[in-house]
């Protein structure tokens, strides 16, 4: 079953049009015809059952038959350093959306080597993952912020994952709560001791992700998985 995305439709919409590229996809690739039904989401926890009213060369029109609303149960906000490999950051983004996440904030740390950020491309990857996993809530992707700024965010439960042994830390499973988790993941080489001290000063608790040393993007996926078990 396919899921399609249109950010502009709402529960008050009666019909909408698809552009040339989208029309070509549903007719040439998916072989859809007039009278067929399609499922759409606007990424805001709403699902729309739609009927194709007509198809032209450069456009098609759909009528909204039904709208279903869903409660959001996502409670995880991950702050993760931009990574040296953009493809690895993209892989993290794709997988965490499949698993479930509320918000992502790219952070710039002392050891962050690559500060490139293409929000348009990353949003497309997020939408693709949303449709593939048949989810109805598109997570928020914030613009990158400096780690010092990130530390000031007010949250119910603030955690920082680190491999360093200079700080008292517990397993992540003991610190996850059912509401409002903010978890920081560092770059290749981990956070510096100075950054961890700054985070702790700002009410973060240091946590361990286990005995194995994980890549930054793998750590992010692992956090999503653990959080999904406790929400």
What does this protein look like?
- By secondary structure, this protein is an alpha/beta fold.
- It is built from six helices and 13 strands.
- The strands form two sheets. Strands 6, 7, 8, 9, 10, 11, 12 and 13 form an eight-stranded parallel sheet that branches.
- Helix 2 (86-99) packs parallel to helix 3 (119-132) and helix 2 packs parallel to helix 6 (216-230).
- The chain is elongated, with a radius of gyration of 20 Å.
- The mean pLDDT is 93.
- What fraction strand? 25-35%
CATH topology of the largest domain: Alpha/beta knot
Termini separation comes to: 27 Å
The Rg value, from CA coordinates, equals 20 Å
CATH superfamily of the largest domain: SPOUT methyltransferase, trefoil knot domain
CATH-level-2 architecture of the largest domain: 3-Layer(aba) Sandwich
**H/E element string?**
EEHEEEEHEHEEHEEEHEH
The helix content is 25-40%
What would you call the structural class?
alpha/beta
| Poorly predicted residue ranges | none
